[in-house]
Amino acid sequence: MVVESPSARERRLARELRDLRAAGPMHGKEVAARLGWSASKVSRIENGRIGISADDLDRLLELYAVSEVQAGFLRRLAPSARPKGWWDAYAETLSAGYANLIRLEAGSRALRCYGALVPHALLQSPDFVRQVILSTWETPSQVEIDRRMQVCRRRQDVLDADSPDGPLRFHAVLDESVLRRTATAPGRDGGTTVLRGQLAWLEDAAERPNVTLQVLPFAAGLPPVTAGSFSVLESRATGTPDVVYLENKTRVFYLDSEAEVQRYEQAFDLLSRMALDPAESLELIRRTTEQL
């Protein structure tokens, strides 16, 4: 199912709270009476129809006598625990889908992606980002170009994020065509110079301990996905893949059913096996640069 905003983590919280109540065992009406809520509020929380505030969650956790370890896990799943950060300053200029994407990346432990046409945004050099903006937006103003470039640069900070869990673990498989496509927006300069700089940027990125970069060579044959690029996010809270996203010119699409996420996980695993290993991939990038 395609959804406008990811809800897998919220649904997990709702299910966990429902299971805790049933293990009591307690009826929804009893919970409502003891907390001064309506029975319908308890039901809507457990069905994931409404979010839950931090205060209400704490009251439930106390009522269910939840251990501190489990309570910490559940708090990380709560909508109120969604990370807030630099992107809030761009709230009026970012679409809801793109803002959700940035927030999700910041709250994820790992990202696995397949790049069919261009490198993932976290791997794009500043000059390449500019060409992407010019090729996908009609007559953007210089202010708009600068703002979008700044957002992309800030988005890339997750690869260097200073957090208790460390930076985002990033694993990308790039189609060989990504290494060879001239980076020129229609009617603009760029071309080989931008592409050469992008390949050097990929080399630098591949040296990061939290980045794994592979190239799917033409010789490997058809990839197991024909719909293009995709990314799979792994939650810090659950430690499991729970959201797939696909970006196009104007929207970000999220897939969050377990079956869909699993299919994309399997596709990525196959792509990784078909691709060159990291050392061979880096060598191909260097040879391609020399040929430019």
TrEMBL record:
* HTH cro/C1-type domain residues: 29-71
Q: Which PROSITE patterns match?
A: HTH_CROC1
SMART domains (alphabetical): HTH_XRE
Pfam families documented for this protein: DUF5753, HTH_31
Q: Which GO terms of the molecular function aspect are on file?
A: DNA binding
Protein name stated in the entry = Helix-turn-helix domain-containing protein
Q: Which organism is it from?
A: Blastococcus aurantiacus
Top-level taxonomy:
Bacteria, Bacillati, Actinomycetota, Actinomycetes, Geodermatophilales
